[in-house]
Amino acid sequence: MAKGMMRRFALAAMLAAVTPMPAIAAPATEVEQLLLHADRARGTDPNAFAADMHRLERLQHTATPAQQRQLQLLRAYQQALTGQYDKAIRDARALYAEAPEAALKFRAALLVANSAAITRDSTLGLRYLEGALALQDRIDDRDVRQAGFAVAAILYNQYGQFTLGRHYAELILAQAPSPRNRCIAQHLRIEAMLGLKAPVRSEEFLTAIANCNAQQEPIASNLLRGYLARHLASQGQTVKAIDLLEAHLPEVEATGYPRLIGEVHGLLAEYNLSAGRIAAAEAHARQALAKGGNGTYTLPLVTAHKVLYASALRRGDLATALDEYRQYADTDKARLDDVKAREFAFQVSRHELQQKNQAIALLSQQNEVLRLQQEVEKRNAQNSRLLLALLAVVLASVGFWVYRVKRAHSALRRLAHADAVTGISNRGHFRQHAMAMLAQCQARGEPVGAIVFDLDDLKAINDHLGHTGGDHVLQQVAKACLTHCRPSDCFGRLGGTEFGMILLGRDLAATRLVAEQCHESLAAIDTTALGAHLTVSASFGCTSSAESGYDFERILAQADHARDRRERDDLAALYPEAIASRQDVPAPM
């Protein structure tokens, strides 16, 4: 590989070399610290980089898998920096294929692109450049992403694709680049503009040169001065272009960069020849040949042979002129062949990329067809499930409405059977239920008890508590007495303040015991929450089938008669003199 071509791409390799490693949070181990330090040193301090790599090789057995991959990338950089491009490409390609980290894949692909360009494997370089650019949306670090754009701009400019070179240079400038990245991007943009033969104002050259000077980038600054000199010469200011280049020639020589040195001497040779300074033109042409690199196809060498041919011709030295012309023709042809080869490589790469994209598009279409088929099957399955669900909903709705109808029917039946105030059986239901019970007990010969009770002076309760309070007392009475009834018993409100009970399987004594329990429960009803302290009481009458038989009307009448008799007995006990004289007595409370 010709040294001039290698130097031509050295700037691209340098840009990739200063791309930072992915950040490692809070470095705690020696390996982590060395990886970070080596990555920073490799583009600025080769000796420190070599020392760090030596220590890392000794400590690699303690490294994690992620650290091993970072070390693998640094090894590939070291190989490229020492001219072992084939090894660098091999290791970087392996890392690109294996690394799960997007940033490592991105940097490995850029290293392959740089190294392949240096070794003139343009197709491989462009393929990996496209691979790196495809990862750009997955790169969070702005500096890493901008370094990739810079490499893309450099390589596209070298391949004569100045529109793409300008695009990626302007992408860097649009993303708030660091001062150094701004210098590089401005240089690449101007280079692309000149390649496109687009106008560039003198102020743009001067601004870019000032920025690069501030970042102490003499190579970029003087490449820009070379572009500015061409701009001045194109406007007829050849002497001014010579003065600009002569003024900074010592700085150019100090960089030791053959491409830059060759180009400046080549331009000085061309412009001095144009100005009629034959001796100066020949001197600079020989300097371009001596210091511009050993390649046979670089522009400085072509320019130098052309100037030497023209100057020899002017002196009448036809033998030298013929020899220089042959060398000029050979170098110019080699340069043009190289340009065509790079353009062809770009077209091949684009064709491969187009085929790849078409294959991806075809695969995507096939996947879309498959997806649609699966979607149809899924929809069919969903429709089947929806039909089943709809059927289930219909059946559930029918069942629900059947349930609601039955429940409504039951509610209506309960309303028809229940007393509206107390919720227990009303007189009609109580009569129907009691008659059925009495008939069954008579058939079995089973005793039946009957209780009839009437609340004492509900009017006084209504006067004190109002009708709402009276209804509340009736509800509490029903609730209290219901606790003394068994499920088989019958309990109902006969009307007004009168209640009745038919007790299954109880004789008169057991019936009277239930009545006493009910009487105690009534006395325990608390009316203070209603705003008055009243004692609820009732007059009870009891009988049984043994005394009254099983006829409903008879047994209920006998119980009611017993209540009246007991009530008179109680009054006689309270007011004996009144009973003896048959005077009216007050009603009991």
Automatic annotation (TrEMBL):
A Pfam entry, by short name: GGDEF
Domain GGDEF per the UniProt entry, residue ranges: 446-576
Range of residues in the leader sequence: 1-25
Catalytic activity: 2 GTP = 3',3'-c-di-GMP + 2 diphosphate
Principal EC category: transferase
CDD domains from the UniProt entry: GGDEF (cd01949)
Entry EC number(s): 2.7.7.65
Transmembrane segments: 386-405
Keyword vocabulary terms for this entry: Coiled coil, Membrane, Signal, Transmembrane, Transmembrane helix
Residue ranges the record marks as coiled coil: 353-382
Full protein name: diguanylate cyclase
